[in-house]
Specification:
Blueprint (H helix, E strand, L loop, with lengths): L7 H32 L8 H4 L21 E2 L2 H10 L2 E7 L4 H9 L4 H10 E7 L4 H7 L6 E5 L5 E6 L3 H17 L4 H18 L6 E2 L6 E2 L7 E2 H8 L4 H15 L9 E3 L12 H4 L4 H7 L3 E3 L4 H13 L5 H18 E2 L2 E2 L10 H13 L3 H14 L4
Parallel strand pairs: 1-3, 2-3
Antiparallel strand pairs: 2-4, 4-5, 6-7, 8-9, 9-10, 11-12
Length: 391
């Protein structure tokens, strides 16, 4: 029936229904925005009963690596297809291996039995590594790890948050899933709003605030993340800061250079020292060399990512501060990458993950040209021309 043909009472009811719908939609969006912003603040923002163990704050009695109660599936086309068939929302836990905040969320939120029961009954839980899946990082990263993403059954993001606790996760997830399940017509507006927020976050994203380690050299990720990521060390080595570059070169040689060639993806401080005693990263990295070694050495992620390895090798070869041994290792790394990570012009990101990711291709092409191997660069370019990959 057209608007002109409706009675005044019907028009009034329609207006009230529309107003209620918009108020509810606004409440959902406001809650999501407030949760995302406030979760990263100090613990005092929320009452203690809601917080559980705050992300980044643990006591010495904390259990060692509580196993996750949630069963996660791989985030892939099969999972998306299943969500579509079953009309179920997807919960995506997207993090980086080196992220201490991501590991803490796994030990708290996803180790909570109540959270696990709700997830099993209501959504499909999926997990992905942001370093192996840069395509997902480009879509869903919101400035800090981990990213917690709710996707509708047709694969659209309807909510994104970071660093949720057990007390915050369930109210957040329930509100969105139950509301959109009852009123699917609101999904378009919610997904559109989330898309705009993610685009704004990407536009505002800046370089990480890198903090120096005065003991071992190199730079921390910063802002509560004490990981040392290969790409961050590369940026410092390539900078004009002689003191920081020397320290980063020393750290990479001593902690990240792999014996057969290549560089580890990251190094992060241990959560536990000898005997299973928990040690906060802030306390661990405040120690001197002897005290750190007495406590326990940091974990190393030995995965090799082609793009970041190529960029590190080139930075070292171009550095006037690098030693001959460091440059020899850089050359071995590039030979290793070419023999194992380039197949008929295709650039493999890692042993798993994506192939022919644009930044990996560009890094390998630049490395080939910088080291006098134009044939290698041409092989990658030829494959990209044939396949339509971005050059």
């Amino acid at each position: 029936m057209s608007a002109e043909g409706r009675s005044p009472e019907e028009k009034a009811r329609s207006k009230r229904a529309h107003a209620s719908s918009m108020m509810l939609l606004g409440a959902i969006m406001t809650f999501c925005a407030l949760a995302s912003a406030m979760i990263a603040m100090r613990p005092g923002v929320f009452p203690a009963w809601m917080m559980g163990r705050w992300m980044g704050r643990r006591d010495d009695a904390a259990p060692r690596r509580a196993p996750m109660a949630v069963r996660f599936f791989t985030f892939d086309q099969a999972t998306l297809a299943r969500a579509g068939r079953e009309r179920r929302f997807i919960l995506l836990h997207l993090s980086a291996t080196w992220s201490g905040q991501g590991r803490l969320m796994e030990e708290t939120v996803y180790a909570d039995e109540g959270v696990a029961r709700w997830i099993l009954a209501n959504v499909i839980a999926a997990r992905a590594d942001g370093e192996e899946r840069p395509d997902l990082s480009a879509k869903y990263f919101i400035g800090s790890w981990p990213a917690t993403v709710l996707l509708s059954p047709d694969g659209r993001a309807v909510a994104v948050a970071s660093r949720l606790t057990p007390g915050l996760f369930l109210p957040w997830a329930r509100l969105i899933v139950e509301t959109l399940r009852e009123s699917p017509s609101k999904t378009d507006a919610v997904a559109r709003d989330v898309g705009l927020r993610l685009a704004a976050a990407r536009a505002q994203a800046g370089a990480a605030r890198l903090l120096d380690d005065p003991v071992w050299g190199g730079v921390y990720r910063g802002e509560g993340e004490y990981a040392k990521v290969l790409a961050d060390q590369t940026a410092v080595i390539a900078s004009g800061d002689v003191k920081r570059a020397k320290a980063a070169l020393s750290f990479v040689e001593n902690f990240m250079a792999l014996p057969a060639g290549g560089y580890a993806a990251s190094v992060f401080g241990p959560s536990y020292c000898a005997g299973g005693r928990f040690e906060e990263e802030t306390a661990y990295f405040a120690k001197d060399d002897a005290a750190r070694r007495a406590c326990g050495m940091p974990e190393v992620d030995p995965r090799i990512f082609s793009g970041s390895n190529a960029e590190m090798a080139v930075a070292i070869l171009r550095s006037a501060l690098a030693s001959s041994a460091q440059k020899d290792h850089a050359r071995r790394t590039l030979d290793l990458l070419w023999s194992r990570y380039v197949k008929e012009g295709r650039v493999l990101r890692s042993a798993g993950g994506l192939h022919d990711w644009p930044s990996d291709r560009r890094a390998m092409i630049e490395a080939a040209r910088a080291t006098g191997h134009p044939d290698r660069a041409r092989a990658i370019l030829a494959h990209g021309s044939a396949s339509g990959a971005d050059r």
